[in-house]
């Protein structure tokens, strides 16, 4: 069973909606998911740097089972 989740965040003043799909692989525990989300945020910091503060929040976190 494979799982992936979709992170949809709304960018600050611009109001642009950005959707990012991440495949969690075969992670089964919430600890693994939390670790992957942390890595995702670290990726975002490395990509956007100071612009990260424009991302207001994770709008929704949806699980899909394949």
Task: Produce the secondary structure layout.
Elements: E1 3-11, E2 17-23, H1 30-48, E3 55-65
Antiparallel strand pairs: 1-2, 1-3
List keywords for this structure.
alpha+beta; three-stranded antiparallel beta sheet; 66 residues; globular; single chain
What can you see in these coordinates?
The protein has 66 residues and is of the alpha+beta class. The protein has one domain. The chain has one helix and three strands. Strands 2-1-3 form a three-stranded antiparallel beta sheet, with no helix packed on it. A hairpin with a 5-residue loop joins β1 and β2. The N and C termini lie close together (6 Å). The C terminus is likely disordered.
């Amino acid at each position: 069973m494979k799982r992936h989740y979709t992170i949809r965040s709304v960018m600050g003043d611009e109001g642009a909606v950005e959707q990012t799909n991440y495949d969690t692989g075969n992670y089964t525990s919430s600890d693994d998911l939390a670790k992957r989300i942390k890595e995702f945020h670290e990726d975002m910091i490395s990509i956007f740097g100071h612009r990260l503060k424009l991302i207001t929040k994770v709008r929704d976190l949806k699980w899909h089972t394949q």
